[in-house]
Known about the structure:
The structure is a homodimer.
Chain A: H1 2-16, E1 26-31, H2 40-48, E2 53-58, H3 73-78, E3 83-86, H4 97-108, E4 112-115, H5 125-134, E5 138-140, E6 159-165, H6 172-185, E7 189-193, H7 197-203, H8 217-224, E8 232-236, H9 248-258, E9 262-267, H10 285-299, E10 304-310, H11 317-331, E11 335-336, H12 338-341, H13 344-351
Parallel strand pairs in A: 1-2, 1-3, 3-4, 4-5, 6-8, 6-9, 7-8, 9-10, 10-11
Helix pairs in contact in A: 2-7, 4-5, 6-13, 8-9, 9-10
Amino acid sequence: xDLRAESRKLSVTLxxxxxxxxxxxxxxxxxxxxxxxxxxVAQGIKDWRPDNAVGQFRMDGCKADVGLGDMTLAxxxxxxxxxxxxxxxxxxGYISDAWKAxxxxxxxxxxxxxxxLHNLLRDEEDLVALAAEKGCELHDVRVPSxxxxxxxxxxxxxxxxxxxxxxxxxGKMYTALALDEAMRAKGMKSTFRATGQTxxxxxxxxxxxxxxxxxxxxxxxxxxxxxxxxxxxxxIEGQGSLMHxxxxxxxxxxxxxxxxxxxxxxHEPTRKHMRGLPDYSVPTMQQISDLALxxxxxxxxxxxxxxxxxxxxxxxxxxxxxxLAGVEAEMGMPAVDPFRHGAERLADAIAAL
Amino acid sequence: xDLRAESRKLSVTLxxxxxxxxxxxxxxxxxxxxxxxxxxVAQGIKDWRPDNAVGQFRMDGCKADVGLGDMTLAxxxxxxxxxxxxxxxxxxGYISDAWKAxxxxxxxxxxxxxxxLHNLLRDEEDLVALAAEKGCELHDVRVPSxxxxxxxxxxxxxxxxxxxxxxxxxGKMYTALALDEAMRAKGMKSTFRATGQTxxxxxxxxxxxxxxxxxxxxxxxxxxxxxxxxxxxxxIEGQGSLMHxxxxxxxxxxxxxxxxxxxxxxHEPTRKHMRGLPDYSVPTMQQISDLALxxxxxxxxxxxxxxxxxxxxxxxxxxxxxxLAGVEAEMGMPAVDPFRHGAERLADAIAAL
Lengths: 353, 353
């Protein structure tokens, strides 16, 4: 039985590819998507990790352009591309024949494939067979490829900061990526740690936390943010909200598995109700702070809330500046919109800890 | 692709059996386990749902006895038994040849099989093949057999009470089962809702929450505790603890998915540290109350903490009585050990809501 379990584990590993890391650099597959929004993930790769992509691959009718040079599979290969990344949303929930032909060509040329699509590469028998034949890896970043441990709660060296939101989709990933960039610009040691599929595709590594089995959630975050240099910071992408009843358990696993030294509150002030929950009003930043901090201190008694990131995309510049000043006065800590004004002041707050 | 997804779903369903409910009554398989503790789950079935079992099946060398009549497979079948339940721990993590022979005999006679073992019935090819041939179901209660929805947070009719603990394994299942019994004895409408494998085997239904994928945890609890009569109570088995860093996310999914009207605090006062976490001290009941209540009120603003269940197994009767009186005075609500003194006072507190 141990042998059988081992062989099962091995077959899963082979099926998924031999590594959890996605090899860079990428060629970004944009397919024939009908608009720019459908290429949001590819755009994120271009914006945040431009060195991770040598170019973009567009098919007839493609209406997206992430601003990288158009390349054929062969051209990108000659530039060193190792993985064809499907950083797009597909139509109708399936991989079309036209897309499939490109993916098969890519495997034939030795590309690995990586995808954030809901429908999985591993469910396409022709892709699986050809990948096995060619020794290529298929990465479905929506599903875990690692057997995560149960969390131990043991104190780890190094520092960690976690983005916690008043709601889902308020800009926690953007905040974490911008903070990572600002901290590096200051010469600090930092690593963005992805916990969702977009972040995983951008950086090539991470934990798809929403797809992890319940008992292993906190352990997967310990695995993602291991012991490190005393002056190194993991910038952990947040998920959900402690007050979003659909996903709050996922958020708490981040708070406890991440052992954060610092929390950044993330908020979107124009939202009328919790995302997907019309009967639930959005909590205040103070409410989330009051809830998150005692919970975080269970795992790390030194944890502090150090700053606020506000997504002001639905406000004018004047409104945004006035709102941020008000929040800053009320909460007594830096409040910025990292998209408008950068994350330097959040990085300063962390450096001052 | 839709067809393919459907066929995949179908094959999973067929593989697992056509129903999530385990058919009762059971014959309890005790195998050849070396001590009474190894038959803990079978004992739970006998203690809490005696009508669910017609007898016990023991092999040579079995050192456990749950106090039901010994029966052969044929005798139990003639008494109406529908499922052979493996309510035992096995040795070495595998299903022995001797056990396998009994399980094959049972399938040949038309029994379904249900198991809480770590190693799964569905991984035994001979069992799977014979079950398919005979039209029998294999229930592995450690893994979900339902595609749970995402939680909606929509207010449901009916009432719910959730057991929340200061730590793991402090008696939350026992408390919930005893409370259910006491409420029924008072003529109240109540249903124990299992969230772990032991409870699922005892009652024949439930959600194995620790094995549910993160995004669906709260939704699985909404599924488990649907709208009901206004005067009906779901008694929801708790899991983990909001302050246990390994499993707290699972607990919060119960607090938010369960939409509880009432919380019962569960505590074991002699524990030196959190279970499995030597560096973490056990919180006080007041700490858990202060943490759980605001979280529960996100989903149900009317939620109240109504009583306390203390596991006093490591205290003398005098110590237990004195301790409970102290807790009751301090917390201002009924504090009982349901194992020593029954759960009537907890049922009264709920009835008084």
